[in-house]
Structures are given as structure tokens and as C-alpha cells.
Amino acid sequence: MDEESAWSGLENGIEDQEELHVIYRTLDSYQQYAKIAHFQCTHLRRQAFYALPRAHWQRLAAPPFNYLETLDKVDDAIESNAELARIIFRNGLDMFHIGVPSESGGGRSLALPPEWNGSAKPGDVEKARSTLRQFYRDWSAEGAREREACFGPVMRAIAAERAARGPDAPPLKVLVPGAGLGRLVFELCRAGCDAEGNEISYHQLLASSYILNCCPRAGHHTIYPWIHTFSNHKTRANHLRGYAVPDVHCASELTRTEEVEGRPVGTMSMSAADFLCLYAQEDRADAYDAVASVFFLDTAPNLIRYLETIFHCLKPGGILVNIGPLLWHFEGRVWDRDEHDDVSTEGGHSRDISGIADPGNFELTNEEVMALVKDIGFEVLEHETGIEAPYILDTESMLQTSYRASAWVARKPAAPANATTTTAPIDT
After folding, report:
1. Which residues contact 50 (CB under 8 A, 6 or more apart)?
2. Which UniProt keywords apply (predicted)?
3. Pair 218, 246: CB distance under 8 Å
């Protein structure tokens, strides 16, 4: 992606002060990662260790346990993770043109405004930590198994759609909502599609922007995804195992695909926005040949809104390719009507709130989801359940958990012959 236009919608800066505060806290969470990880992972353990009876901690400090050496190695691993976190932080400051007056009096230096240092909330820091771990899944060679489980069905469905349209058809325009760290967007681009990712999380956006646009080479960083917990490790070697990321340098790989393999690549872009707010707009109607939904639909508080929006932005005859579990992200959320007492309603429906912050939520079974997909107007072409789909899984851990995902392809009906198709914007 062109670095100057890596995220659409941010060219003129951030005017919304509340959103700017979210960006500051997100940046600060990457800045604070090392300090908090050292405190939680090793400092507190050293305190607990020396609280043991002297004979006991001395036994554990000696071979073959070498517990204190283990804590030192965890500290080193945290610093390796923190190197990536600090680069994401600095890259974000540069991207948003955030700085403070230079002490030398000339210009500005990249830094958070002083009042925002230390502003990240515990949830912000946890998101930074989980994003660093996600590099294992999306951008390490060892994460290829997980990527194949989830991206494989999508790539095959997209390839089949391209083949059905013939060799002279233009590149498919594919939307990837909930694009995360951008790996699927990159793979679709490498396969010749014009791929557009959408992501609302600034933690993910900052990290994906760096890895797609700025990382200088493959294997530039080493991450240690398993160090934040000490439970269920069979061996200390696996607990402390590091992984080189990224496994490919994006620009070099796209060049190699074209020049060595002789295959044309597509384009890729990323939008930073609430999926519902952006893609329900009238100018997004009938705009995409395919929507690739990977571990995304269960992030919906209101799945009807998600499916209506996807239906709205797909071209007639376009396909929705979905794979994922149903870990409903808003399960248990309680809507406080007092917080929305200024919302006018008509027939019991909200008229003034749009986006993922809409009041109300519900959860469906997989069977009910498929019924809703059809009720929205899609034609279900394929449906498979029970697909093994691990998510940031340590395969050497004593605890093995994996999703049994549902995968399906659904088509928006093609426009009748000699008919003019117009899609009304979603009521927001």
C-alpha cells in the first residue's frame, strides 16, 4: 500500500476529540507494554519466589530448575516483544503527526503529549499484548497451519468465483471486514484481487500499517507469544520459544509474484472505520464482487445489521464467503436505556444511533444464522460445519482448545435481465 494513503479517511487528521483520545491510549498501551509485562510476568513472580522458605527457593534456583534464570530469560523475551511494540508506537506517532515541541526549540519531536503518558487503561494494554501475540498467527511461518484453516476456504471460494467469470474478467473487488493484521488482505492482493480491508481497532490498524508498509525485511522481529502465562507448558524450551516475523516482506513478495512467477497482483487498501457506518452508505452500494468474512460475524451485536450491510455493498451476483465460530462478542451486554434517553424511536426502532455502538444485542445458533442469511435475501451455495480452526494455539501446550468452525458461501441474487438495479442505503 502507498504509505501516504495506507488508511482511507485519515488524510485530514482526526477531528473528533473522543476518537483522538482513543488513539492516544492505544499508542500509550504499546509504549507501556514492556513496563507492565515485566511487572506482571517477572517482578511479581520474583516477589512470590523469595517469599518461599529459604531452603525451597534455593532448591528451585539451582539446576535443574534454574527458576531465576527462567525469569531473566522471560525478561529478555519481553524486551524482544517490546522492540516490535515500540516501533508500532513510533510508526503511529509519525502516521498521525503526533509530536511535542522539541527541547532544542526547532520543530517537533515524535512523542505523546505528556498528559497522555500512562493513560492506557488495563483493557488497552491487554489489547496491545494480544495483538503482539497475534503476529504468531498472521505473520509467522509457524502460523501457516492456522491461516490455512481459516483463509484456505476463502481463497478457494474466491479462486472459483474468478474462474467462473473467465480469464478476461477484471480483478475481483473483495472487501475484508475485520481485517485485523491484514494478512488476508495481502494474500488476496497477491492472488490478483483488488482487496480492501476494514478495521475498527486502532491496535490492529497500527500494527497492520507497520507490517504491510514499513517493516524493512522478512524476519526482522522475533516474538515470544507464550511468555505471558506460566501454565500448561510441557517444557521450558517451548515456553520460551520465539518466532521470526514477518515470514514474508510484503513489497518484495508482491514483486516476486509478478516478476518471477509471472502472475499479476492486485491492489490493497485499508479503511479505518466502523464497518456499519462506512459500508451502509449509499456510495458503497453494489460496490464489491465478494466479501470475505473470517472470524467476523460473531463480533456483531446485531447480526441483522451486519448482513444487511454486506448485502447492500455486494454487487448483484456477488458472494459472501464466511468462516468462523459463534463466540458472540457482545453476549451479556446490558443496554442502559438511560444512556440513550435522547434517542428518538419509531415503532420501537432506534433512528439516531448507527454503528457497532447501537443499543441491543442477541445471539443465534449456527442453524439460526443460516436461516437469517436466507431471510436477508442470500442464496446459500455451500455450507460445512465442524472445521478445525485453532486460534493462536500453542500446539505444544498441555491445554489444547480449538474452534469447530462453520464455513459457507452465499450469493446475492443477480439482477434480472433488462432490469435496472438500485440498492437503497441501509437506514442508519
Report:
1. 57
2. Methyltransferase, S-adenosyl-L-methionine, Transferase
3. yes
